[in-house]
């Protein structure tokens, strides 16, 4: 997991740069975003020249010369995205942002990078599951869908990208492999594109990346994500013998293309926004069908977020864009990639674990995980020591407690099992320190922040990663006896573990901090201990990784299947199909939980856990077109002129459009003030002559009415509108509550979460004093009735009834 360190660094750097510098003007690289182009449907060489010239002229008018502008610009985005990346002085950047053609100017800063068993768990290998054929068969394994991945590149020799049995490259493909050599990336009929983008990195860092100029993956992350989305079948894939099985991607017969935008730097933070935009532009041009981006950063306004901006152009070309939610959970409001046109994916566990048990001298047992091939030398108990008590004389027990490098005293540790606490340093490095000090095994206990999040790592010594609460018990056992001892069992691959899925503690959470009216994440998918291809520059051919980086390409692969099966569906329809068919229960039949011992909510998993077989035949979809997106942008930005630039055509913002009416497959009202009515429309993508009924599960204290309650479709592709009215029944519940709306014809189950915060339903009790009554001296029952009625009438004249 990447740390937020690089952001903190950036933020302070920005502050620093605001101070006037007397000696020289500080230059930095920026992206100048100008919306879309008005090229015709066939983009010509003249179009491109004109666009480039326009950029030179615009910048030249600020720099005083065309030539200087040419020198400063290192990317001209001329095909789909309109804008350029250039080295500018801060003052220049500020001035340019006021130009009428310019939508936004933002710093070229870094974003960070945020599988064998997982597909069986998703039911893709099961046939006839409740009469639903496997999506793989149905969608011909994603045949000829093209999946583009923005990441650290690709290890082309990986068996996952072997092209045996693949026919000619689809004729619509315009991509290629840069540095198409054995040392670079040699393309084939499976891996059909490989490009690298490092000008943004170079401009921001001041030197080229140390890696060689090609899309070759020197890190492993990109090969892992690309093979998860579209890798072919590779039998006998395993990591040190664990999880042995056939590795494959979500769309095993898809073609894949790697766009290398992330370069090695501290903390994997080397994905620069100017490079990301250039790669998205290239992927659109090359003819990708699905764009997978396991990249993110802190949530940002769409107008300065390169992933949001680039994706907006991609979806207009029919490309499905899938992004990772981030690994900054379990705190709320951490999700990134928040634009409503991105399919944002959280991460959850699968029903496989790499189990090792911790046995204590007190006869207590705890279940842990590890990928260590080594077992303890003898099947017997060993002395147990906690690392806080095993510190070297020159270090504090606080440092040794977390098993930081060079903090443990071999005199105290040798021959023992060592209890280390998670946090601050890398988990694998703690194992190395334990081994250095001569420990025979390590128990790695979670700190309070990581709770029940257990990850299987290939430690250098026998090890068991255990939960926070189990760790506390081990500590109290150590404190309870003079001679504590323990044993660790050999780690084994276990399938069918329960409960699964559970939302991973690290998975970033909603609410959406940019537009609270859009629920994020949209969906959750497998992202814990996933086995997929890796870079042989750093490890074995396959490796285990965890993160929303891993769950994102699972959904990209499923989107690829949908593209093969329904080539004419819009990105929004594919997104809707994936969301409304998701499930909210685990393999115990209970509501999905999370790793912090709570019932998960839509802020953890969005619409639920992805269910590919059902997504292939969703029944109804909530579709969206360009007008819908533009109206949404108008509603949140209230700047019609900027929106017109986005649209690259004259566009009048609809004044009456309210963002809650955006045709999203989930319903979110962040501030329910009394009553609100949401409008939606659904399109029948199933057979004609079907009748759907609404089934509502109301959030607590909220009344939900749907009008009409029955939708009859005579034709396929027919659209029907309906309204959902939410009313806060009682005041006071100033927090989010959750429910759902399900449309069903008894064959399809089209489910959307309802997420409401009645925080603003601030009703209170008041006394209305009207003076005295004019009853006679004897007050009669009729007097009382008359008075009561007059009160009803008076108040009714304000409330309408
Ligand atoms: C091609 O890529 C390889 C390996 O990444 C690198 O060593 C070589 O310099 C590159 N060649 C060119 C012409 O950029
Ligand atoms: C993995 O499984 C295959 C097929 O069942 C078998 O041939 C191979 O030896 C196994 N590999 C390991 C390392 O267990
Ligand atoms: C403590 O001293 C040892 C040598 O005895 C040294 O190797 C180690 O780096 C020191 N640790 C710290 C944190 O200063
Ligand atoms: C988009 O959909 C809306 C609602 O169905 C429709 O009124 C509008 O004409 C559509 N716009 C385009 C550009 O297709
Ligand atoms: C926008 O509104 C103006 C004024 O009502 C009208 O003249 C123009 O045709 C409209 N443009 C579009 C694209 O609808
Ligand atoms: C649907 O129902 C209508 C009217 O009942 C009928 O005319 C039509 O043939 C039916 N269509 C199909 C495909 O069954
Ligand atoms: C709620 O609605 C009422 C009436 O429409 C309005 O006066 C009040 O300001 C609203 N409260 C909030 C917090 O928006």
Automatic annotation (TrEMBL):
Residues 204-230 are annotated as: Disordered. Residues 661-756 form the Subtilisin-like protease fibronectin type-III domain. GO terms for biological process: proteolysis. PROSITE patterns: SUBTILASE, SUBTILASE_SER. Residues 1-25 form the signal peptide. Pfam families: fn3_6, Inhibitor_I9, PA, Peptidase_S8. Residues 142-593 form the Peptidase S8/S53 domain. The keyword Nucleotide-binding does not apply. The keyword Glycoprotein applies. CDD domains: PA_subtilisin_like, Peptidases_S8_3. Keywords: Glycoprotein, Hydrolase, Protease, Serine protease, Signal. InterPro entries: PA_dom_sf, PA_domain, Peptidase_S8/S53_dom, Peptidase_S8/S53_dom_sf, Peptidase_S8_Ser-AS, Peptidase_S8_subtilisin-rel, Peptidases_S8_3, S8pro/Inhibitor_I9. It comes from the Eukaryota. Residues 29-114 form the Inhibitor I9 domain. The active site is at residues 151, 221, 549. Residues 399-473 form the PA domain. Residues 208-222 have a biased composition (Basic and acidic residues). One of its GO terms (molecular function) is serine-type endopeptidase activity. Belongs to the peptidase S8 family. This is Uncharacterized protein. It comes from Stephania japonica. The lineage of its organism: Eukaryota, Viridiplantae, Streptophyta, Embryophyta, Tracheophyta.
């Amino acid at each position: 997991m990447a740390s937020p360190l690089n952001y903190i660094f950036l933020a302070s750097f920005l502050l620093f740069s605001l101070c006037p510098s007397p000696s020289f003007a500080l230059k930095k690289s920026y992206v100048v975003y100008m919306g879309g182009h008005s090229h015709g449907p066939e983009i010509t060489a003249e179009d491109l020249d004109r666009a480039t010239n326009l950029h030179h002229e615009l910048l030249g008018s600020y720099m005083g010369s065309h030539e200087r502008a040419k020198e400063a610009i290192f990317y001209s985005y001329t095909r789909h995205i309109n804008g350029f990346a250039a080295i500018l002085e801060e003052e220049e950047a500020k001035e340019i942002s006021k130009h009428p053609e310019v939508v936004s100017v933002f710093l070229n800063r870094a974003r960070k990078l945020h599988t064998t068993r997982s597909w069986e768990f998703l039911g893709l290998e099961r046939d006839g599951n409740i009469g639903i054929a496997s999506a793989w068969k149905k969608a011909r394994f994603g045949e000829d869908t093209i999946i583009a991945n923005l990441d650290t590149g690709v290890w082309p020799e990986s068996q996952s990208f072997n092209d045996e049995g693949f026919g000619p490259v689809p004729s619509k493909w315009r991509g290629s492999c840069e540095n198409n050599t054995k040392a670079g990336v040699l393309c084939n009929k499976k891996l059909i594109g490989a490009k690298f983008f490092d000008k943004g990195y170079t401009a921001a860092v001041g030197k080229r990346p140390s890696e060689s100029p090609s899309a070759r993956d020197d890190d492993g992350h990109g090969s892992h994500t690309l093979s998860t989305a579209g890798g072919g079948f590779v039998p006998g894939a395993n990591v040190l013998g664990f999880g042995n099985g056939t590795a494959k991607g979500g769309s095993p017969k898809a073609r894949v293309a790697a766009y290398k935008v992330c370069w090695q730097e501290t903390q994997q933070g080397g994905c620069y926004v100017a490079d990301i935009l250039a790669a998205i532009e290239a992927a659109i041009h090359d003819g990708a069908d699905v764009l997978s981006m396991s990249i993110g950063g802190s949530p940002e306004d769409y107008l300065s977020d390169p992933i949001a901006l680039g994706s907006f152009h991609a979806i207009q070309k029919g490309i499905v864009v899938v992004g990772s939610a981030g690994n900054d959970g379990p705190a709320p409001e951490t999700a990134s990639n928040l634009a409503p046109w991105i399919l944002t994916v959280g991460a959850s566990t699968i029903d496989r674990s790499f189990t090792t048990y911790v046995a204590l001298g007190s006869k207590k047992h705890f279940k842990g995980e590890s990928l260590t091939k080594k077992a303890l030398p003898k099947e017997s108990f060993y002395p147990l020591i906690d690392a806080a008590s095993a510190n070297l004389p020159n270090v504090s027990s606080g440092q040794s407690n977390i098993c930081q490098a060079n903090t443990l005293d071999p005199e105290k540790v040798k021959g023992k099992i060592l209890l280390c606490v998670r946090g601050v340093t890398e988990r694998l490095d703690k194992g190395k320190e334990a081994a250095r000090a001569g420990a025979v095994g390590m128990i790695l206990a979670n700190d309070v922040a990581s709770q029940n999040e257990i990850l299987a790592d290939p430690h250098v010594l026998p090890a068991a990663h255990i939960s926070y609460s189990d760790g506390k018990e081990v500590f109290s056992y150590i404190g309870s006896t003079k001679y504590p001892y323990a044993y660790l069992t050999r780690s084994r691959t276990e399938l069918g573990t329960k409960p699964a899925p559970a939302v991973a503690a690290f998975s970033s959470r909603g609410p959406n901090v940019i537009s609270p009216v859009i629920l994020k994440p949209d969906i959750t998918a497998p992202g814990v201990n996933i086995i997929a291809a890796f870079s042989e520059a750093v490890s074995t051919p396959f490796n285990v990784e965890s993160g929303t980086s891993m769950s994102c390409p699972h959904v990209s692969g499923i989107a690829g299947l949908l593209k093969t099966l329904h080539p004419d569906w819009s990105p929004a329809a594919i997104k809707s199909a994936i969301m409304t068919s998701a499930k909210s229960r685990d393999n115990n039949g209970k509501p999905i939980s999370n790793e912090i011992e709570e019932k998960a909510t839509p802020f953890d998993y969005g619409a639920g856990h992805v269910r590919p077989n059902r997504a292939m035949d969703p029944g109804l979809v909530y579709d969206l077109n360009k007008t819908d997106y533009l109206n949404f942008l108008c509603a949140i930005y209230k700047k019609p002129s900027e929106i017109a630039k986005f649209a690259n055509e004259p566009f009048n913002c609809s004044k009456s459009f309210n963002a809650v009416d955006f045709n999203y497959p989930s319903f979110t009202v962040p501030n329910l003030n009394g009553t609100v009515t949401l409008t939606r429309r659904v399109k029948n993508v199933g057979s004609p002559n079907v009748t759907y009924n609404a089934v509502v599960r109301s959030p607590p204290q909220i009344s939900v009415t749907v009008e009409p309650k029955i939708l009859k479709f005579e034709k396929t592709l027919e659209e029907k509108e309906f309204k959902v009215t939410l009313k806060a029944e009682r005041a006071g519940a100033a927090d989010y509550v959750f429910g759902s709306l399900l449309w069903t014809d008894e064959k399809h189950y089209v489910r959307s979460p309802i997420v409401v915060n009645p925080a603003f339903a601030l009703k209170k009790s008041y006394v209305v004093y009207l003076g005295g009554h004019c009853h006679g001296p004897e007050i009669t029952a009729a007097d009382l009735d008359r008075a009561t009625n007059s009160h009803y009438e008076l108040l009714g004249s304000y409330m309408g009834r």
